[in-house]
Amino acid sequence: MSRTQDGAGDRAKSSAENSAQNRPQVQPKAEGWKQAVDAEGRPKLQFAQSRRVSQPPKHLADLTLAERTDWVKELGHPGFRAKQLSVHYFTHYTSDASEMTDLPAETREEMVAELMPPLLTEVRRLRTDDGATIKFLWRLFDGALVESVLMRYRSRITLCISSQCGCGMNCPFCATGQNGLTRNMSTAEIVDQIVRANRVIAAGELDAPSAEEVAEEQDHTGLGEEADEPSSPSGPQRVSNIVFMGMGEPLANYKRVMNAIRRMVDPAPEGLGMSARGITVSTVGLVPAIRKLADEDLPLTFALSLHAPDDELRDELIPVNSRWKADEAIDAAYEYFEKTGRRVSIEYALIKDMNDHPWRADLLADKLNERGRGWVHVNPIPLNPTPGSIWTSSEPAVMAEFLRRLEAKGVPTTLRDTRGKEIDGACGQLAAAED
Ligand code: SF4
Fold this sequence. Notes:
It is built from 13 helices and eleven strands. By secondary structure, the chain is α/β, with parallel strands linked by helices. Helix 8 links the parallel strand 8 (279-283) and strand 9 (301-305).
């Protein structure tokens, strides 16, 4: 290439960079509602539920099999009934006493009422993607509403679940966070979302994805795709993958979420016998809890919802960043990889003129590469276009440039699947921006 051509190329490049640098900076702010603020005017954060909230009734899914056995005995029944009830719940996905014909007719109603009280009442069910996606709205015992979204793919079935009623993290783009944290969901309430979804699948109510969806899937792989679920020609017959991206910040409800995960991976009939690799725990960056999670000795998939590499923006976008900065969250994610050997995911919703600037892609790549190579995977998430809102999708060319820059610096990057969003599938952390 001649000097003159080189110079022209440089000029064209620098003018493109200049116009990229001159792109507007849209500031995050809540639309249609007011963020609660503390005495210093910072968005309020709430890490714990009020002591006064009432708790759901105890359910066998709250307990280990040994604890269930003790409970059954305390109620005056033989201990082995605990195992029989567990088989019905975790293997047949039923809480209906009339189906439990191996239990004595005279006591089965009473046992079920005591050990398996109803936890989730279905309020609404929305189907999309030709029936391959179902969004459930559940009412809990105290009237609180939570959601889960069930998605069938070619070789896996993913359920996006909630872990809290409301959320105390107060992200300005998130409808869930606007009223703060009502209460933590119990272990059994978290698990019951899966059991109920499995019942729907067993009843043949979740359809196969269309050929188009399958083709899309090959391009846009979802999270936690490594579940070792036995495959059959028609795909798995129960939930194989879990993502904690429904309502709530799972690491703010650490104890119950971990208990629920144990119940997911415990072999049947103690639990659901799922693969830990197929379970994705996602957080906005509660650093001490990320460290604790790394010590659990479970090969979970870990996802950090970063959404901005610089504190200036992230302080506004993810209020918990005022407590633990972007670098601290990335360090904790790196430590998670070091301890578990599991490659971590960085979630990054691309929002027009807010966080999609080319320099942010470069900064993100540099920050990840500084810590090492091969430890992380970035999942940019395209939002739906929302005309008139600041929470709208990046232009396709901007999105492509963002991905190109990450890849150019050697960071593995996959544009995330956005299944379920057509039905307002507010998988809290990510999709709420699309409300
Ligand atoms: S985005 Fe997630 S962490 Fe933030 S308020 Fe919503 S549910 Fe909570």
